[in-house]
């Protein structure tokens, strides 16, 4: 392949924003991309390399100095940005990618485009990884040459170019680059796939990469049709926190799944899994007399009064009662565990997890009286004495055991 001709015809000959930034790691892919941009785009464009230093590899400093010195040698402007390790720092690829794009968004000017050097082999690897993880149609086909990350426009000019062609071009044009030896670590799924699985498949089916690309192209046509159908039914999303049951039931299965995915993503800001979509469909078509709810992250989804409702969980520390001066609660401490707020046992008091006793009729009737939905009940700890319910904290107090002080919100045992 004539890479210069391909790159010029597809990218350099079209109108792009005035500022072109190149994500530059020093590897062969980004080095070739950097070379192509500065060779084919004229001086009317402002071009700059950006190197992100994660400082997690033993060779990070070497890469830093290589990128800095090579850009100086080639007279290419470069910004080098070091990621500081925060409390929630993670070595996971997904986290590091988000950090990079967060930096890109904060640093890039208006009227800018970011070019990244993903190639056809990366494309195939990502497809197979998502396939093995059980991604749906949209997940398998979401790798495109032009995408948006918020307001940031990202172009992948090498997405249709094989790694072999990139190496050939680098050798032909004497383009210097570094090699990351961590790419040989087979404990990383992507590396194992690249080094072991793909060569084995390619040996048996030499044209399998072309077949995958063809398959994705066909899927993209189906997605266009699906998106048109989704746009036709998007009016049912007008109400933010609920969907009318009769409107969602009549939708074709695939359209209903995508409508649900779009609706929920508007709350939790991430795409939910296919398994969750299946569970939501079960809630939608469940019988009326059954308890119909599902926990999704920090939200509860439930079917009630011919609607599908989505509510955020109440924060467990919002308890409105003060026990500080009560004799009964002098030695009682509050503790937060993973699922519920509970009271540590103290003399004369037994405190039970709500999940353990929620089916008891007396407790159920109290929650129904105060119109507390099933998915909200875990936020109300219950206090028992000798097996008898005396209090639902923040909601209800038994008159047989307690009375309210006239001068305060304290509750005193008789």
Query: Judging from the principal axes of the Cα atoms, what is the shape?
Result: elongated
The percentage helix is 40-55%
Provide mean pLDDT, rounded. 75
Distance between the termini: 89 Å
Number of helices: 14
Structural class by sheet pairing and helices: alpha+beta
**CA radius of gyration:** 29 Å
Low-confidence stretches: 315-359, 402-414
Give me the side-by-side strand order of the main sheet: 3-2-1-4-6-5
Strand percentage: 15-25%
Largest sheet: 6 strands, mixed
Total beta-strand segments: 18
In short:
With 414 residues, this protein is α+β, with helices and mostly antiparallel strands. It is 40% helix and 18% strand.
Q: What does this entry look like structurally?
A:
The chain is an alpha+beta fold and 414 residues long. It is built from 14 helices and 18 strands. It has helices spanning 3-12, 28-40, 60-73, 93-107, 120-132, 137-140, 163-172, 189-204, 208-233, 245-249, 253-268, 274-284, 354-357, 361-369; strands spanning 19-23, 46-53, 78-82, 112-115, 146-149, 152-155, 242-244, 293-296, 299-304, 307-312, 334-336, 341-343, 350-352, 382-385, 388-392, 396-397, 402-404, 411-413. It has a 6-stranded mixed beta sheet with strand order 3-2-1-4-6-5, sandwiched between helices. Strands 7-10-9-8 form a 4-stranded antiparallel beta sheet. Strands 13-14-15-16 form a 4-stranded antiparallel beta sheet. Helix 2 crosses helix 7 (163-172). The chain is elongated and about 85 Å long. The chain starts with a helix and ends with a strand.
